[in-house]
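Researcher: Next sequence.
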Amino acid sequence: MSHLFDSHGAVGSGWSQPEPLLPESRISLPANLIRRKMPQWPRISESEVVRHFTWLSTRNFGIDTGFYPLGSCTMKHNPRVNETIADISGIAEIHPMQPEHHIQGLLAIFSEMQKMLSICAGMDEVTLQPVAGAQGEFAAIRCIQEYHRARGDEIRDKVIVPDSAHGTNPASAVMAGYQIIEVPSGPGGFLDLEVLRSVVGDDTAAMMITNPNTLGIFEPEIAEASEIVHAAGGQMYYDGANFNAILGKTNPGLMGFDAVHYNLHKTFAQPHGGGGPGSGPIGVKSHLAEFLPGPIVKRRPLVDGDITEASDEWWFSWYEPKNSIGKVHQWHGNAGAVIRSWAYYRRYGRTLKQMSEHAVLNSNYLRHRIHQLASEAGIGSMIVDGSSAKFVKHEFTLSLSPLKEATGISALDIAKGLLDYGYMAPTIYFPLVVPECMMVEPTETESKETLDKFAENFVKVLQESPEVLHAAPITTPVGRVDEVHAARNLTLRHPME
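Model: Next structure:
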């Protein structure tokens, strides 16, 4: 293993610095800012530094090195042209405090993204400020909360969440001060409308749900669910994590939703991984628009006094909604993510429906192929579907409970075994309603050949012995770790002493 900080070399070697502009005698620094000893930087040559980081990069797994079927957290190919556009100096070097007449190009892009996202989701207004999906959830729930307060509806303190929901949904609502009412899934993993009717009331603030749901199946009675919540005076919130399964086919507005968050870092190909960078804009119906976090971009005809001559062109300005919940990010959102997603939309905007079609096709094909190969290998009974739906949308769930009962091999063991075959493991143990769950999302950017190979290797892993899988992974740079210990005892830097 390469340890950069173990290389100390000769004193004074490994770097070059210009001479100080002022002699030491003229430099007066507070005593508490002066080092007591020399920094422990490694003293090595440039070529050794390059070799270290090149070596380090080969130990990482990402979408550029292998198949990444991470269910619920789409990790798909990110076109490199988007990076080139985001790196244009007139975009990348803008300071967020520059005056409007300096950044009309950026504001025009923001305006276009707001309009595009509102159309895609059937919403009336969009803010690009939230920088993560969960932050978008929180911001949307806060808008709903302030809407109720403005109407004098102070008793609405409950948010309804299905038991298959993303964990961030109840967390976001609790952060806003709400109590959570969890509703169990009905037969086949669908929302149970009778249970929903039994829990809505005068204290219902909102319902949070994604569609397709976390089992990868479309809720056919979602419009009726919206009517039930609205009749009780509540609002409908759409978790946009699974939006890429329906884009161009339908939209949350048609389903009766009042607010939605978008994951630009998933649906619109902004790269994400390792915790960021993300972008989670929110869209709302008109009655919630004045509660959005600002600023957002508004456009109007160019008039005298706008720096240039009056014409029929547009002028773009920042706008603060009058009843805004306030900022949820220090500036105007993750501008780089917005630019990359805008570039993606400008290139593929006319074929976004095809994107969704391919995502659904790939998901159903891989699901069928895994079952087919497992059946041919005589182990078909070892895995069962997490839902009874004949067709799924962009992702599907498998239960490995029969395999664990018969052999002691768990979903965790299978996930670790897939690492030895060169794949990022699918999501496991989520949603919680599926025992020994494995959630698989192939995305629309993978080829049939990739899916076929993954299905073959998946079945091979299912056939491995318990001894092999309990020890997996064995070919990766780091073997199986104590995940609980790693989560509770973080090591975030190399020891310097």
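Model: The two ends are 18 Å apart (CA to CA). The chain has 16 helices and 13 strands.
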